[in-house]
Write a structure and sequence with these properties.
The complex is a heterodimer of chains A (112) and B (111).
Chain A lengths: L3 E4 L2 E4 L5 E7 L5 E7 L5 E9 L2 E4 L6 E3 L9 E3 L8 E8 L7 E2 L3 E5 L1
Parallel strand pairs in A: 2-11
Antiparallel strand pairs in A: 1-3, 3-8, 4-5, 4-9, 5-6, 7-8, 9-10, 9-11
Chain B lengths: L3 E3 L2 E5 L4 E7 L6 E7 L5 E8 L4 E4 L2 E6 L4 E6 L8 E9 L4 E4 L3 E6 L1
The chains are: A mainly beta (112), B mainly beta (111).
Chain lengths: 112, 111
């Protein structure tokens, strides 16, 4: 039972590059979310999905895109990386009626 | 809007009790959570409380909820060095189907 799997664990990008952070869950969870964690700011919601084909914006969506073509996968795309996107990114999922989100182990992204 | 606030740092002696406090603003929150994050790791769900409860106990953990004051606390009995971590309070905003996190309280346990 893998839970929520995020890849890669670490990534360094140059300003202007694009990349996709992968997230997959094997628990058949309906709800999936992407958060970023910055020192002293807790976790802030980037985008979320309530099911395959349905996504919506969170608090800090600018510069990121998501899609949800399957229940299992919820990739996060950085369109043109900026230093302000240096952060730790967490993917999380929750089942219908579930009592809490299960988090992946995170992707540490540095944009130089 | 929704907001969750926590103190940023708490230092306790090993064996003492730790109390981490949190205030939230969304009175319609259905669940309130405590997550633990160890260095370099993801978030681990410690415990949660449903909004119609006042207290929940789970081994060394006690959660108290004061709905009137929108105040949540986590008490860790007999705190150990392995409890050193960042603890996040979060409320579930059902209207937006999202967790809203506080900034986290760093718990340091010393001998």
């Amino acid at each position: 039972n893998a839970g929520v799997t995020q890849t890669p664990k670490f990534q360094v990008l140059k300003t202007g590059q694009s990349m996709t952070l992968q997230c997959a869950q094997d628990m058949n969870h309906e709800y999936m979310s992407w958060y970023r964690q910055d020192p002293g700011m807790g976790l802030r919601l980037i985008h979320y999905s309530v099911g395959a084909g349905i996504t919506d914006q969170g608090e800090v969506p600018n510069g990121y895109n998501v899609s949800r073509s399957t229940t299992e996968d919820f990739p996060l795309r950085l369109l043109s990386a900026a230093p302000s996107q240096t952060s730790v990114y967490f993917c999380a999922s929750r089942g219908t009626g579930g009592y809490g989100y299960t988090f992946g182990s995170g992707t540490r992204l540095t944009v130089v | 809007g929704e907001d969750v606030e926590q103190s940023l740092f708490l230092s306790v002696r090993e064996g003492d009790s730790s109390v981490i406090n949190c205030t939230y603003t969304d009175s319609s929150s259905t669940y309130l959570y405590w997550y633990k994050q160890e260095p370099g790791a993801g978030l681990q769900l410690l415990t949660y409380i449903f909004s119609n409860m006042d207290m929940k106990q789970d081994q060394r953990l006690t959660v108290l909820l004061n709905k009137k004051d929108k105040h949540l606390s986590l008490r860790i009995a007999d705190t150990q060095t392995g409890d050193s971590a960042i603890y996040f309070c979060a409320e579930f905003s059902g209207g937006y189907n999202k967790l809203i996190f506080g900034a986290g309280t760093r718990l340091a346990v010393h001998p």
